[in-house]
Amino acid sequence: MIDDDIDNEELTHTKTVFRRHSKGSVMFSGCSPSGDVIVIDNISSTKSYDLTGWYIERQTDAHSFLRYTFTNNFIIPPWTTIELWSSSAANRTMPNDVEYNQSSKSIEKHQEQQQQQQSFVRVKTKLLTWNTGLQWSINRLMDSNGHERAIFTHRTLTSIEQEKEE
After folding, report:
1. Which of 33, 40, 83, 89 is the most buried (most CB within 10 A)?
2. Cβ atoms within 10 Å, residue 57
3. pLDDT (tens digit, 9 = 90+) per residue, 49-68?
4. Phi then psi dihedrals of residue 91, to 5 deg
5. Domain 16-93+132-158 class?
6. How confident is the model at residue 64, as a pLDDT?
7. Which helix (H) or strand (E) holds 131?
């Protein structure tokens, strides 16, 4: 129910735009503006990807740069979604029985249990936060050769900025 006493002109109207692009089957599915979690998918039905040496670069309006590098033998199986939780958010949101450290053995074990279905794996990273992006964030997934494989951006527009874009 809307309170009739609230003057509509005092409210700030915003619009958040999310964009993503990938070169291949490994892509961002989501990146939390609050800095809690980054989600990547392998949408291939047949191919696993070894992300060893791959890294995520995140830049936000509040923080200039953050880099997260995948450890040795970090394999993302076909049809798998990986949630990369910051350690502070994971402590609040992840039950202990689904917490996985960044190791291919735990992911492969989980994958064996979920054969032929899309799998979801939660990883608690050592990052305290992925950094908050109040107005905008740019997230890049880079392969071990430094080539961009995927990008995910968000931008929050105020009503004034929305009018300028139209």
Report:
1. 40
2. 15
3. 999 999 999 999 988 789 99
4. -65, -30
5. mainly beta
6. 78
7. none
**What's the rounded mean pLDDT across residues 72-100?**
79
Token pair recorded at residue 138? 């740019």
Reported residue count of the chain is 166
Amino acid at 146: G
Q: What average pLDDT does the structure give for the chain?
A: 82
Cβ of 108: how many Cβ atoms within 10 Å? 13
CA pair distance 8, 48, nearest whole angstrom: 51
How far apart, in whole angstroms, are the C-alpha atoms of residue 102 and residue 142? Answer: 18
Residue 65 tokens, joined: 């740069």
Amino acid at 68: Y
Q: In the chain, what are the domain boundaries?
A: 16-93+132-158
- Which of the 8 DSSP states describes residue 105? H
The separation between CA 93 and the C-alpha centre of its own chain, rounded to angstroms, equals 15
> Residue 52 corresponds to which tokens in the numbers above?
């060893």
Strand partners, 74: none
